[in-house]
Every structure is written in C-alpha cells, then in structure tokens.
Amino acid sequence: MNGATIPIEAKTISVAFFTNNASLAPPTLAQNFTEKLRDMVSQQTSLALIKQNGDLSFEGYISDYNVAPVAIQSSDKAGSNRLTIVVNVKYFNKFDVTKNFEQTFSRFADYSSSQSLSSNESALIQEINRQLTEDIFNKAFNNW
Question: Rg of the chain over CA atoms, in angstroms?
Fold first, then answer.
C-alpha cells in the first residue's frame, strides 16, 4: 500500500480515458498517460480497477504539450530544450468529498539541443508520465 490513505469502505477505482487537448502532442500520448495512471493505482492499491463509477475515480485531459529552449548559451543558442506536459485532473472520493479535487499537474524533462525531439520523445514522455502519475497518486492518497 506504500502508506497510501484509502478509505476502508472503498473497494473499486476507475480511471477514465484522459483526452488529449494539446495541439502538438503525439497521438499516443493520451493512451500512454491513461495506462500509466491505471497501472499505478492497480499496483499501489488493493482496489479493483473498473471502467467507470468507481468508489474513487480519476478523470481529466492533457491540456498542454510543448517544447521550449532553456539554458541559453552564447549567440542566443539554447544548450537544451524542455518538453513540458500539463494534465488537468479531477479526483472523486464517494466516501469523503473533502478529498475531491480538481488540479493541474505539470512536469518537464530536458534534452540536449544537439538532439532532435523525435529521437528523445518516447523516453521523455515515459519519464514525464511517471512523474505526473506519482504526483497525482500522492495528491489523492498521501495528502500531498
């Protein structure tokens, strides 16, 4: 359980498909993020994962996906680029509405400007999704 605070009466959890509302995101981003969050709640809790109407539930959407230069070096050239993903999450707890929340979560990963986004994108997304799902899980179950 990893110290997670879950209501004793809760038996099920649902994670709705997170839609992709970010204009430049790859088509698989929403599916990858949703599956990562589902995997986390399945592995870190004893709750049964169901399609909808769980005792506890998550829903939301990916609101932003962008790349921006960071670490500007000489001649106004970026030393690295930053991929940022932003997710809007709604969490519902049927047993304690004071635990419900709607919050935006944002994480990023940097990569060298001498490399292309396409050569790093899969690994960057995987790392960002890991960080985002940990943040969301901790907010919902560890009172962070």
Answer: 17
Interior CA angle at 140 toward 93 and 7, to 5°?
50
**Distance (Å, rounded) from C-alpha 91 to C-alpha 51?**
15
The pLDDT averaged over each successive group of 10 residues in the chain (144 residues) is 75 97 94 98 94 96 94 71 97 94 97 88 96 96 77
- Total tally of structural domains belonging to the chain: 1
| Model confidence, pTM | 0.91
**Residue range of the domain that includes 103:** 12-141
- Residue 76 CB neighbours (<10 A): 7
Whether 40 and 133 have beta carbons less than 8 Å apart is answered as yes
Task: Tally the C-alpha atoms within 13 A of residue 124's C-alpha that lie toward its C-beta.
Answer: 23
For residue 5, being part of any structural domain is answered with: no
- Residue 1 covered by a domain: no
Q: Give the CA count within 13 Å in the CB-facing half-sphere of 73.
A: 8
- From first CA to last CA, the distance across the chain in angstroms is 16
